[in-house]
């Protein structure tokens, strides 16, 4: 049986994928690259493919990969760079390139044929990637910029005007291929002959520029089709020129904006030319972008526009010669994670006149900016102020922005309709106040633009409970809003930092919604590079703020997110790359903070942002209260010892495993000796303390049932069916309750609408997730209305326990499908696009019947737990499963029948 193959793309380095459809005839093939294939700077990227087939139980048995230096050779089935030959293997998600050494600035072409137990495919369509600049020497020129202030800058206010650079070039031959490599810091926009190159915004990705600098790559062949051309670059500040500089002991400042770029051209006659940045470029700061600041916004004076500045013939006589400047210091690296872009446009749901101004409501809290159309007299100033909510009188509530001005200003040039949006800032908002707008404000003149890292939404979830569905929607908006090349905590106030403590459970849940593997792989590298020589890891990475407080819960996210990536994507290279740094940090924490009784004494934050007992008790009070707890730090260290024991095996460091396991066994005894109370609880008997002891396996086996009762008692009796966990406890609460047989209580927490709960946020107008459970009454100093940290493990619970989509082996090779049946929940319809392909689980219960539609991707299998009285009551496609040779019945347990399914689509019906 023949199969059809298509190239798609997925994660980490070069995780391209191929899809094969088993069917009698083969249709035309197509190439669908979902990740940017330009600028791969790894010598052995890994290749991946997805296989789809009409038949069931399809398993790959072998593959044949060809990698060639030209499409012509590939078309002739010549793999001059690598011909794997027919390789017996079922691996389809992580085959490392093992061919000839790759050279800088070359394009590589590949395709694959797969062999399965149901037949082989034809060759896939071809895909390609461009090898980036592999060596420092490849750049071979200098950085340019202006290292100093100009009259257009406001040093005291921290405002720096944008830097404009240009250079005219001549092309005397026919261009076969042209590639631009650019590092523009802090942010850049590249133009050729007045046209912006690419649709990315706020590029490149944020890093600690003394450690590493990301470069972007563009195919500009079609733009160099004449003799004369002009290269133009605008540089914004980003995080390079620090947003705030009044606390140099806290905030890193890297200097003034700068750039290095080269354009490599191959002509049709085979000759090559490279155009570099040098001091023949001209630059100015006297352009329309008066200031650009991530916290404060952008000021744009259209009267100062440099008309046709990036086109041939522009008079740049008044521009200064570009200066050679010091390089940033970090290694140059291709940016594998996608840049940000405008991902969605929103129209206002209302525009209301208010005190001579307009208040625009987009109906949704999100991050990005406004694209405005306006017409008026020259010099008219339009001011846009952003906020997440309104005061009672309908004016903007901005107290929770702290010192962020969150304001854009546009000065009209006059003479016709003008359209403008900022380049080098973004805001977190739902509402915008417009002041000074000439004429009538209408919805088509103020388009909200949602901006986040370009990535696919790979998860979907709906159920019979509308509240669950809306929480899922709110979570999507909150997660997307806080993807800003790093996982920022919030997009609106003067913070926007990648706090490690916000993400351990959240990142896991996010991966069910978004194809974020490249994003989080990049962040793990930010964390590794922020590590001090002695092993210390900061609370914020990249370490734009110098916060090295030494605690377990925040830096521990480093290990937990790496574990998530391995489990969800099968990317062992992530573990291999970070294992030494993780091991060093574990040793560092033990050496400095383990006391003589085996307890880790250092914890900086405790169960951060635990809810006040009542909504009134927290009214007007700041949540910025640290409650360090050695039980939490010790429990986390124990858990991470177990994680490291697994990592040691995965990464070929098995000699370390015994040491980790022995330390964990001793710590368990020390932990129980110090923190266990004979009344069957831990520490001070808080919900979080007991949850950690249960979920991490610290409680002795014969005490588990009692501890489970205590956890339930706290929630049901003391909390009146509500949670009382802060950031730490919420990471584990839903899974713990389900594991102890109380998924019904987890469901109660998920569907509460009274304080404290996710539903309470919705009842009080939230369209994302709040930073605080009492976000409507807490002091505004620390009260973001668009955070993800309080999601905890909620989304993990949605997909793994309500839908029944859980990876048993790494990367969903084996899927555990065991949805919880909870009174009041009548159906769930969910899907997740894993590295093997789409997994779907759509179930419906009616009285004593259970209907379940399931899709398993090729090369994967599922352990399916069907609610059923007996095996003979189960039917698939209308026929008893006992008569279906494609379905393997394993046995029965606890009112369910366990069957094993191979790939394919199934419709199951049972009575229970």
TrEMBL record:
Keywords: Hydrolase, Signal. GO terms for molecular function: alpha-L-rhamnosidase activity. Residues 173-343 form the Bacterial alpha-L-rhamnosidase N-terminal domain. GO terms for biological process: carbohydrate metabolic process. It catalyses: Hydrolysis of terminal non-reducing alpha-L-rhamnose residues in alpha-L-rhamnosides. It comes from the Bacteria. Residues 354-452 form the Alpha-L-rhamnosidase concanavalin-like domain. Residues 457-801 form the Alpha-L-rhamnosidase six-hairpin glycosidase domain. Residues 1-22 form the signal peptide. The keyword Iron-sulfur does not apply. The keyword Magnesium does not apply. This is alpha-L-rhamnosidase.
